[in-house]
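Dear H.,

Thanks for agreeing to be a second pair of eyes. The structure we're designing against is below in C-alpha cell form, covering all 135 positions.
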C-alpha cells in the first residue's frame, strides 16, 4: 500500500503534513476501556496519530478482560482529517482505500499505521535534504 505514496512532495507540503495543529484542528480519538468507558484524546500531529495507532495482539486483549484498553480513532475521521486539515489528499485517498476493504478495525490499524509511517518518513527525508542544503 505504501507504493501509493510515490508522488514527490515539496518542502511546503512536507512541513504542512508534519506540523502541529492548533487545538481547534486536533484529531479526536479515544482510549476505550470496558471498565472506564472511553477517555477522549486529542492528537495534534500526524506523528502523534501514527504513534496512537497501536497494534494489539488479540490474545492479549482477550486475556486483559475488563482491564484492557484499546486506542481508537474512527478511520474515516482520520482520513478526512489528513486531507482537510493537513492537506495531504494522497495519504487521505490511500487511507480510504484501506478502509474500503471492510476489514475490522484491528486489521485496518497495521495497514493504516504503515502507510502513515511511510508518508512521515517521506516528509522527513524532504525536510532533511533542505536542512543539509541550507548548511
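And this is the sequence the design step returned. I haven't edited it by hand at all.
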Amino acid at each position: 500500500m505504501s507504493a501509493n505514496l510515490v508522488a514527490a512532495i515539496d518542502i511546503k507540503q512536507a512541513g504542512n503534513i508534519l506540523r502541529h495543529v492548533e487545538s481547534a484542528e486536533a484529531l479526536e480519538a479515544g482510549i476505550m476501556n470496558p471498565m472506564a468507558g472511553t477517555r477522549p484524546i486529542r492528537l495534534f500531529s500526524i506523528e502523534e496519530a501514527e504513534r496512537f495507532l497501536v497494534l494489539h495482539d488479540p490474545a492479549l486483549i482477550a486475556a486483559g478482560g475488563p482491564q484492557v484498553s484499546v486506542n481508537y480513532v474512527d478511520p474515516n475521521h482520520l482520513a478526512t482529517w489528513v486531507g482537510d486539515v493537513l492537506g495531504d489528499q494522497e495519504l487521505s485517498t490511500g487511507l480510504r482505500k484501506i478502509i474500503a476493504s471492510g476489514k475490522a478495525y484491528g486489521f485496518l490499524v497495521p495497514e493504516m499505521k504503515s502507510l502513515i509511517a511511510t508518508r512521515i518518513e517521506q516528509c522527513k527525508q524532504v525536510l532533511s535534504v533542505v536542512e543539509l542544503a541550507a548548511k
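Two observations from my side: Helices lie at 11-18, 46-52, 58-64, 75-84, 89-99, 105-134. The chain is about 55% helix and 15% strand.

Warmly,
E.
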